[in-house]
Amino acid sequence: MDIPRELIERLSQARRVAVLTGAGISAESGIPTFRDALTGLWANYDPQELATPEGFARNPKMVWEWYAARRTSIVGVRPNPGHDALARLERCFDTFTLVTQNIDSLHQRAGSREVVELHGNITRVKCSLEQRVVSDFAEGESPPRCPCGAYLRPDVVWFGEMLPADALARAEDAAEHCDVFLSIGTSAQVYPAAELPLRALSAGATVVEINPERTALTRHVQFALQGLAGEVLPLLLDKLTAASA
Ligand code: BJW
Fold first, then answer.
1. Average pLDDT, whole number, for the chain?
2. Are residues 11 and 17 in contact, defined by beta-carbon separation less than 8 angstroms?
3. From residue 95, how far is each of 89, 101, 123, 172 by CA, in Å?
4. How many CB atoms lie within 10 A of CB 52?
5. CA 235, CA 82: separation in Å to the nearest integer?
6. CATH fold of 5-31+78-119+163-244
7. 225, pLDDT greater than 90
8. Which of 19, 124, 190 to mutate to test the pocket of ligand 1 (most atoms within 8 A of CB)?
9. Ranges of each domain in the chain
10. Ligand 1 close to Cβ of residue 220 (< 6 A)
11. If I label 139, which of 89, 151, 162, 235 is the partner at 20 to 30 A Cα–Cα?
């Protein structure tokens, strides 16, 4: 993979950088993506039943247990060189906003300090009625109950639900005020996250995509780096560090 010199020059001059990550950045850590034709979660499970409030209302036990199994499966997973490179990249710019659609905490575990989580976090649990995060609950029932009597649910954003307002506002602000925007490992199909690189483009930023496949975004960007995040990002960091030395 060759990183264009023009891109390194633009990054060297950039003061404000915004990044959007999706499931692809965690794929090399062994976490399945959603829309891969064979191994993606939505190829094997029905999102209407598992990732909507209506699905949870129909079958709370099934939804709770599916998320409990996914929570368990990420416990032993480790950040990969893509997450590590982003944590180091954060230190190269005056303003660096890392926005993720992922719920797996791998950016935080790699050392990224400020992570804007658009779709929640699977390690947290909230009350399905009051929407508040609950940390102290009895595990017995499936799903367990909030002290108010309602079911607890994972603190993630399902289809048809609003994103956390503060996280979305921070993400939009970062997209609209950055010099360079990196879209990494996302199919750019889920809104409003998919709008962020387009907002950055409209505001005049240089937009870069890192993905082994073409996506809905590819034709719009100035630089499409076709490769794995865990390979492209360390290379990008090396070239940028060398250019700044
Ligand atoms: C690699 C790689 C490697 C592989 N390196 N790359 C406007 C138009 C149309 C529809 C809508 C719209 N606005 C809202 C909607 C409805 C809906 C939506 O967008 N639907 C679309 C599917 C059409 N959006 C919503 O409902 C959102 N809420 C909302 O907008 O509220 C207001 C509203 C409501 C209703 C109507 C109108 C307005 C909420 C979205 C919540 C998404 N939730 C999920 C589940 C989270 C919990 C869980 O984990 O179970 O979030 S769905 C799933 O998709 C998950 C992801 O965060 C999200 C995005 O997926 P992502 O990350 O892009 O993964 P993939 O698998 O799609 O792509 C992976 C990519 O990586 C691929 O391109 C690979 O090639 C690549 N890759 N290996 C780099 N090594």
1. 96
2. yes
3. 11, 20, 28, 14
4. 17
5. 10
6. Rossmann fold (3.40.50)
7. yes
8. 190
9. 5-31+78-119+163-244, 32-76+133-156
10. no
11. 162
Whole-angstrom distance, CA of residue 15 vs CA of residue 38:
40
Total length of the chain: 245
119 is catalytic: yes
217 Cβ below 6 A of ligand 1: no
pLDDT at 245: 79
C-beta 119 within 6 A of ligand 1: yes
Q: Residue 161's pLDDT is what? A: 98
Res 153: pLDDT: 98
Mean pLDDT over residues 116-128, rounded? 97
Model confidence at 226: pLDDT above 90: yes
CA 223 to ligand 1 centroid distance, Å: 22
Half-sphere exposure of 79 (CA within 13 A, CB side): 16
Taking the CA of residue 21 as reference, the ligand 1 atom at the shortest distance is 62
pTM above the 0.85 mark? yes
Find all residues with CB under 8 Å of 223, minimum gap 6, and list them. 4, 6, 7, 206, 207, 208, 209
Q: Which two tokens stand for residue 206?
A: 């240089």
Report domain 32-76+133-156's class.
alpha beta
3-state SS, residue 122: strand
